[in-house]
Amino acid sequence: MNARRQRQWTQRAGFGLLTLATIVTTLPILLIVLLILQRGLAAITPEFLLAFPSDGLRAGGIFPAILGTVLLTFTMTLVVAPLGIAAGIYLAHYAPDNRLTQSIRIAILNLAGIPSVVYGLFGLAFFVIFFRMGTSILAGALTLAIMTLPVVITTTEEAVRSVPNSFHVVSVSLGGTDWQSVRRILLPQGLPGILTGVILGVERAAGETAPILFTAAAVYLPHLPNSPLDPTMALPYHLYVVSTQIPGMPAGVQYGTAAVLLILVLLMNVIATVIRSRARARRRW
Amino acid sequence: MTSALRERLVAVAVRVAGISAIALLLVIFFFLIQQGLPALAEVPLPDLIGSRWYPIEGTFGLVPLVLGSLLVTLAATLIAVPLGVATAVFIAEVAPRSVREVLKPFIEVMAGLPSVMLGFLGIAILAPELYHRLGLTTGLTAFTGALLLGWIAIPTIVSVAEDALDAVPRGYRDGALALGANRWQTIWRVTLPAARGGVLTAVMLGIGRAFGETMAVMMVTGNAAVIPRGWGALFQPVRTMTATIAAEMGEVAGGSTHYHVLFLIGILLFLISLAVNLVGASVVFRARTRAERILS
After folding, report:
1. DSSP state letter for A228
2. Is the CB of residue B93 less than 8 Å from the CB of residue B165?
3. Which of A114, A255, A267 would best serve as a mutation to test chain B binding (most B beta carbons within 10 A)?
4. Mind listing the domains of chain B with CATH numbers?
5. Which residues contact A282 (CB under 8 A, 6 or more apart)?
6. Helix A116-123 and helix B257-295: axis angle, to 10°?
7. Does the CB of B189 have a partner CB in chain A at under 8 Å?
8. Measured between CB atoms, does B139 come within 8 Å of chain A?
9. Would you call B254 an interface residue with chain A, using a CB distance cutoff of 8 Å?
10. For helices B97-112 and A2-43, what crossing angle results, to 10°?
11. B250: DSSP letter
C-alpha cells in the first residue's frame, strides 16, 4: 500500500513538473504578444499605416515597408505555389519507391534545414549577381521562394496522401486517368491542406529578414518601387533598422512596426486555422 | 492535345518539379563553393584557424566565430531540450483535450513569430533586465542570445516530439496500464522510450534551428569576435557565424577577400546544417524500420 502511495506521489510531482515546464515555455511568449499588441496598437494610426517615413525614419508612417512585404510575399507565392504543389503531387501520387525518390526526400529535408542567412548568400550570388537582377523585389522573392519550397512540398504531399485511397480507386475504375484523378479528386479533396501549407509558407517568408538583407531590402526609399527590379523596404527589415541602427528612435515607432508585423503573421495563422477546421468539419471520411 | 499526350506531359512536369529539389540543393552548394573557395587561396590556412577576426587588417581567424556559435547553440540547447520535450509530453500525454486544443495552435503561433521581433524585444526588454539583475557590464551577451534562441528552438522541438509521441501505438500504453503501471510510469518506461527516435530527431532539428538563427542572435549577443573562455564567457558578448555574415556582407566589396571569407563561413554553415539534418533523419529512419519490424 505504501509503495502505491509513493507511486501516486511521484506521478503527481511528475505531472506538476510537466505542467510547470509548459507554463515556462508558453507564458513568456503570450506576455510578449500581449505587450507588443498593447504598446503597438497605441502607435498605430491611419497615418502610421499609410504615410511615408520622415525625420530619418523617426516619424511618419511605414507604408512602403508594409507594401514591400506584401509585394515580396505575393511574388514569392507566384513562384513557390506551382512548383511546390507540383512536387508535392509528384511525391504523393507519381513517384515510384526508388533511389531517386529517396534522394528527393533527403534533398527536401536538407533544404528545410539550411540557415536563412545562407539562403541570403545564395540569393546574392545567384539572383543578384549571376542573373544580374540587382538588389530587387524579384531577387528577394525568388530567394524566399526557394527557402519556403520545402514547407509547401511537404504539406502538399501530406494533404494529397490524406485523401482515402478508395477515392482514387473509384476514379480509376470509372476509367479516369492519372491526371484526371489528381485534378478532379485528389487536388480538390486535398485543397484545404495545400492552402494551409502555402499560407504557413507565406507567414514564414513575411517574417524573415536574413534572406532579403542582401537581395532586396533597402533602409529607406523616397518613392514606391516601380518594377520587380527595384529594391524595396520590408517590414521585418524595417523593424531591424528602427530597433538597432538609428539612435533616438521613439519606442512608438518600434512597437508600432512590431505590432503590424505581428498582426500580419497572426492573421495568416488564423486564416490557416479556419481553413483547416472548416475542412475537417465538412469532411465525410 | 490528345489525352495520352497530356498525361505524359503532366507526369513529366511534376517529375521535374520533384527533381528540382535536388537540383536546387546542388546549385546552392555550387554557388557557395564558387564564391567561397577563393578564400582558401587568398588567406593562408593558419590565419583562418587563427584567433583574431579583424577584417579591416585582413586578419580572418574563424575560431572565435565558430566557438561563439557553438557556445550560444549549446546554451540554447540546454534550455530548449528539457523544456521542449517536457511540453511535448504534457501536450501529448497529460493535458486534457480542451487544454491540448489551445496549446497546439499556440505552439504553431510560437513557431511563426518572426525572429527579428524577438530580437527587438531582446534589446528593448530582456537585455536591460539582465544588465540590472545580474550586474553585468552589458546586457548584450551570449546568455541573452541563448535565452532567445532557446525559445526559438522550443516550438520545433515540441511539435516534432509531440508527433513522435502521438505515433506510439495505443496498444503500448494500454498494455502498460493493464499490467498495473500508472500513467507516469507508462510515460517514462513505455511511451517515451518507444518514441525516442522521433524525440531525438526533434532535438536535432531544434539544435539546427538554433545554430542557423541569424537576426535575433545578431541583435542581442553584442557581436564581439572574441574567443569565449570558460562559462564566464556566457555573460560576455560573443559573435556567431550567422551574425557575422548578416552584419558584414552589406558593407564588403563584391569579389574582395572579405567577401570570399564570408561565403566560406556560409559553406561551413551549409555543411554543418547538412550533417545535423542527416543525423536527425537517419535516427528517424532507423527507428521507423525497427517499429515496423516489431509491429509486423
Report:
1. T
2. yes
3. A114
4. 43-295 (1.10.3720.10)
5. none
6. 130
7. no
8. no
9. yes
10. 50
11. G
List the domains of chain A with CATH numbers.
59-282 (1.10.3720.10)
DSSP A131-177: T---SSHHHHHHHHHHHHHHHHHHHHHHHHHTS-HHHHHHHHHTT--
Burial degree of B68 (CB within 10 A; 0-12, 13-18, 19+): buried
C-alpha cell at B263: 561565403
Q: Compute the distance between CA of residue B286 and CA of residue B215 in angstroms, rounded to an integer.
A: 35
Q: Do B10 and A243 touch (CB under 8 A)?
A: no
Residue of B nearest to A276 (CA): B105
Label the pairing between strands B59-60 and A59-60.
Answer: unpaired
Distance from CA of B146 to the nearest CA of A (A): 14
| Residues ≥6 apart with Cβ < 8 Å to A259 | A36, A37, A39, A40, A41, A43, A44
Residue keyed to cell 502511495:
A5
Q: What is the dihedral of CA A270, A273, A279, A281, to 10 degrees?
A: -100
Which residue of A4, A37, A118 is the best one to mutate when testing the B interface, meaning the one whose CB has the most B CBs within 10 A? A118
Measured between CA atoms, the residue of chain B closest to residue A266 is B109
For an interface test with B, which of A22, A97, A200, A246 has the most B Cβ atoms less than 10 Å from its Cβ?
Answer: A22
Residues, chain B: 296
- C-alpha torsion angle, residues B94, B98, B104, B105 (rounded to 10): -170
Nearest CB neighbour to B84, from listed A25, A91, A111: A25
pLDDT string in tens for chain A (285-residue length): 578 888 889 999 999 999 999 999 999 999 999 999 999 999 999 999 999 998 889 988 999 999 999 999 999 999 999 999 999 999 999 999 999 999 999 999 999 999 999 999 999 999 999 999 999 999 999 999 999 999 999 999 999 998 888 888 888 888 888 888 888 888 988 999 999 999 999 999 999 999 999 999 999 999 999 999 999 999 999 999 999 988 889 999 999 999 999 999 999 999 998 998 888 887 766
What's the CA gap between B226 and B248, in Å, rounded?
A: 16
Do B109 and A269 touch, CB atoms closer than 8 A? yes
Q: Which grid coordinates belong to B108?
A: 504553431
Q: How far is B162 from chain A (nearest CA, A)?
A: 13
Among B187, B212, B254, the residue with its CB nearest the CB of A116 is B212
Which residue among B7, B28, B219 places its CB closest to the CB of A179? B7
Residue A72 near residue A216, CB atoms below 8 Å = yes
Phi, psi dihedral angles at B36 (to 5 degrees): -100, -30
Q: Assign 3-class secondary structure to B196-239.
A: HHHHHHHHHHHHHHHHHCCHHHHHHCECCCCCCCCHHHHHCCEC
Residue A16 Cα, gap to closest chain B Cα (Å): 10
Chain A CA closest to residue B32: A122
pTM of the model: 0.93
Environment class of A175 (CB within 10 Å of its CB; exposed 0-12, middle 13-18, buried 19+): exposed
